Amino acid sequence: MDNGSVTLNADGTVTFTPDDNYHGSETFEYTVSDGTTTSTADATVTVGSVNDGPTTTNDTATVNDGSSVQMDLTANDTDADGDSLNITQIDGVDVSAGDTVDVGNGTVTLNADGTVQFTADDEYDGRESFNYTVSDGTTTASGSASVDVTNTNDAAVANDDTGSTTEDNAVTLNLTSNDTDADGDSLSITQIDGQNISTGGSVDVGYGNVTLNADGTVTFTPDANYSGSETFEYTVSDGTTTSTADATVTVTADADAPTVTVSSGSITSGTTSSGGSSSAASSHDGTYTSTVNGTSKNNNNIQGTSANDQMDAGDGNDKAYGGAGDDYIQGGDGNDHLYGEADDDSLDGGDGNDNLFGGDGNDIILGQNGNDDADGGAGNDTFTGGEGNDNFDGGADTDVFVLSGSSSDYTINSTGNNGYTIKDENGSDGNDVITDVEILQFSDGYITASDFASGGSVTSGTYSGSSSSTIDTYEIPVTISSSLSDTDGSETLSSITLSGIPSDATLSAGTENADGSWTVNSSDLSGLTITVPQSTAADFNLSVSATATESANSDTSTTTQTIAIEMPIAYDSTLTGTSSDDTISGTSSNEYIDGSGGNDKLKGNDGDDYINGGSGDDTVAGGDGDDKAYGGDGNDKVKGEDGDDEVYGGSGDDTAAGGKGDDKVYGDDGNDKVKGEDGDDEVYGGSGDDTAAGGKGDDKVYGDDGNDKVKGEDGDDEVYGGAGNDEVTGGDGDDTLSGGTGDDTLDGGDGNDLFYFGDDSGDDIISGGDGSGWTDTVHLQDEDGSAVAENEWTLNLTSGTIEEQADGYIELSDDADGTITFSDGSELTFDGIERFEW
């Protein structure tokens, strides 16, 4: 049979099975038998046409994470009918060309050509499976696809960086902060400008250095004084791959602080001229830029401007004020008050009894008719009284009084205190009284008032000489040097500014500014001297400032140094000894006492005295007042006694004490015994092995150099051993103690005491003092902040326990004892301590 098969069943029927996919008519012959005879006939079966469903076969593929693989899932699928097969679903989701389905650890996209594209997720490692459905247009079938995904390393990606800083300042850059690695691998910098680098290493990149830090950042340090942009290359690695990018740092120009040093030399006495020129001028002359007028026959009150004013108050009892500028003020009729105020003014009282005040400057004052009162004030003034009985006070500087007649017409008598009466025997000028007037000008010549009163002769002509008089001064030599710190030519040094100079002092060079400071060119610094009138001399602070300017951007930097200028005291008298053994006692005045040679006994008694023992073994006492007492050479006994004194032992082995008051006591050279005694004192042992004590009050006591015994005694004291192996004792009160360098022994005594132990402190022994009710603390650093606690250290308690411990402190039980050993080899032995801080 061609297109099927026939099976004889048990019940006598037959089953016809057509061949697969066959449709049409099939005829076969069959034979029947009755057991004896047979008969044959044909059977024809018509086979109808039906659709055969598709058949799928599982698919596999491999791919790296983050990558895609194309799969032809239907290539191994079949359809008996030969029908074309199409994918209609992915993991149960209907799809058409271009659709994408997330299948867990990747995505599947159906392509237009019937294939699919599987894209693996980044960093996934393993097998990902998904189902798919195919259709022949009538029926469907499901299949499965599996993709083995391998997680491979993704390359690091470096990106360019920028940074900025100012000249001479380093900047730290986190170059990897904007770099990426798809795997999330840690990135590290392996090269700078192509040179291998490891933690702590540095690479010169042209105009600076790049250092790789332990935390993965880099520090760019520009070359000294460099400004501009610097670019360097860096390489990062994820351990497998590398990537390179650029970093650019912009360095902004910044002016460097210049150096300034200033010192003053020995102050000497001198003289200088005061004032300018004066003459017997009796009329105003000038150019005026402003006019201010009153009204006639009213009592006006008018005010000038800061310019040069021409002012007419008009009739009436007026008040007129010139203000700044060279002013001309007319009072007119009436009893007027005219005030020239600042600068060089001309005042004309007119008729009436006027009050005329020149003020500062060189003024011309005309009384005119009436009984006038005039005060020239400061400056070189000229006064013409006119008719009437006038009073004129010249004030400071050189003043001229002008009379209309000849010298023979007047009788002049002294009243004392630079005062004179002038009687006009002819009556035209009246009877006048003058005070502090230096020159009398007559029609036949001029003469000083004192010479005229004593019968001197006049000098013919009109007085026009110098008004300069001499005043006693102090000359202060000042040495100033200044230089640029940046010497590459990019900066310039401006002029030097001095401030703090007294208003009545002058500088030998430079220009005085409106704010009272002085500007001096660098070329004029040599031989610079400050001149101060002795009559007003007082201590002052001199500040010197220099400014450097950066040419690139005009940035500036200023350095200021300040020194104290201590002026000599103007003493009422000087008492000087001889080379023998002198005994000198002062009075109630302020005296300068110099013992000179010999073993002297000197005492200032009352007043603010300066006492110098000089050479020899002297006994010096200040007495009452604020004194300065110096032992000088030799082994001296020096005491300030009452008042706030300064006491200096000088060279030799001296005994120095402050006495009552808040004193400063200095042992100076030698092995001295110094004590503040009463008051809040400062006591300095100086060089040598000294014994220094504060006494009563809250004192500061310094042993300074040498192996000293230093004690605060009563009060809350600060006690410092200084260099050497010292014994430092606080005494009563809440004291602060430091041994300084060397191997020291410190004893706080009673009270809440604070001890300092820092670098270079040596091997110290510290005792807080036994007893309850106070806490003694050891600070593990010097007073200047250098911390020995930064070294490794070990605390060993021989008595007591640790009660509390945290970052920066340890609390101990009362009066704990023990040692601290430091990695630098130093050791601290302590007893009676309750707390450590660092």
From TrEMBL:
Gene Ontology MF term list: calcium ion binding
Cadherin-like domain: residues covered: 2-47
GO cellular component, as recorded: extracellular region
Source domain of life: Bacteria
One Pfam family it belongs to: HemolysinCabind
Subcellular locations according to the entry: Secreted
Composition-biased stretches (Low complexity): 260-283, 576-589
Region annotation (Disordered) ranges: 260-389, 576-752
Annotated keywords: Secreted
Compositionally biased residues, Basic and acidic residues: 625-641, 660-677, 696-713
InterPro entries with a match to the protein in the record: Cadherin_5 (IPR041690), Hemolysin-typ_Ca-bd_CS (IPR018511), Hemolysn_Ca-bd (IPR001343), RTX_toxin/Mannuronan_C5-epim (IPR050557), Serralysin-like_metalloprot_C (IPR011049)
Biased composition (Polar residues): 284-309
PANTHER family xref list: S-LAYER PROTEIN
NCBIfam families: tand_rpt_95
Protein name per the record: Cadherin-like domain-containing protein
Organism for this UniProt entry: Candidatus Terasakiella magnetica
